[in-house]
Fold this protein.
Amino acid sequence: MRSAVPGSRPSPRPAGNRRARSSAAARGGASVTDNPSVRRLADWPAERLRDLADGYGTPLYVLDLERVRQNATRLRQAFPSADVAYAVKANTTRAVLGTLESTGVDAECAAAGEVKRALDAGVPASRVRYTAVNPPDRDLDFVCSLDAADELTITVGAEDTLDRVAARGFDGPLCVRVNPGVGAGHHAKVSTGAEPKFGLPYDRAADVARGAADRGFDLVGIHAHAGSGISDEELSAHRELVRRMGELARDLAALDLGFVAVGGGFGVPYREEEAPLDLDAVAEPTRDALGDVQPRLAIEPGRYFVADAGVLLTTVNTVKETPGTTVVGVDAGMTTLLRPAMYDAYHAVRSLEPDLPPRDPVSCEVSGPVCETADVLGRDRTLPAPTRGDLLAVGNAGAYGYEMSSQYNSRPRPAVVAVDGSETRLAVRRETLTDLTRLETTGGDGASESDEVSITGETQGSGRTDGVDGRDTS
């Protein structure tokens, strides 16, 4: 791990210095093909990234909030009349949530914890949609007991969930999740549209929606999602989903729905040679398929907002020559960035060391410190001959990076910093070794179930809380 240099940490951004609400929503449906959604790893300024690594240590996630705004603008330009929501699971940091809230983007939440994060970041309850899969009772208890519970929208994907929210007295807006029977995505594990786990079967959805309305629920919309990381080659599945949702909306015209949500899943290029997703090619057939439908179109991307707004910095610990490759051992691994191990996902890797003196290019395997064969961030990567202490950057790490990190091997999770123009602030502090055992209890010390942290984040029993620098402040 690269140690932080005392006194070199950039000044935190002043509280309350939030940018004004974006006017992008007021713009017309301008073509975005001349302003593509792509920020290559080479576009990040090496000197500034080195300064951040020196100031905050590594592994370190860096988020560019201005890039988040730019991506929001592109979506607004492509879908000028749509309700745009952000899939919070892609990046849950308050820095990102607050930035998107200030642009008028709503929050689509998959769990009660994400609902809490969105509300804490200032998103009004009326702009929060809770779209859970098989929600636990404790999650429904939390959401339905909120002071503003009658303002946020609950999406149900199973008939018995209607009974569960009714039993909790929920009388707010309700949405029905539909299984469209078609799926797509960058990996089979995230192609959700055709999987029975997600939503009501298409041929039963209309009857369930009418039944919910007959029971007095305030039915405001229908929702479906094809999958995550959809590319240009997979747009046919998304178009078919939109077509089916349009047909369902026409069938339910008498219910006066407010919106038809067609999910998100808009992909971004991870390889240098990949072209960005043509948003116009997504938006135009979507508008055509829903053109005569009264409810508003709603989209819910996550990755598109934040993937290329984030980079992971990691330091070289060891360099080992082997007959087949040069193994470059770094301080970030599958516990820091899981996607390569879980999805065989490609993330570009770049050396941030100065070009002089020049080094010969070497084919490398960039490996993490975890005792698993899968703990490889990249194979067959050409880098300037690496040495111990080199700083590497891993691209497109803004989506499903920190959010999927873990403490496996008892490794503390990394820090996250947010940059906004010339300003920098610590968004998430680095975990300490003390944090690893903070929630554990031992027999005979008076601990009980009352000591656990509730979904509200309030400690219900005794416990200690670290300060922002990781020191025990009890």
In short: The chain is about 25% helix and 20% strand. The first helix runs from residue 46 to 56.
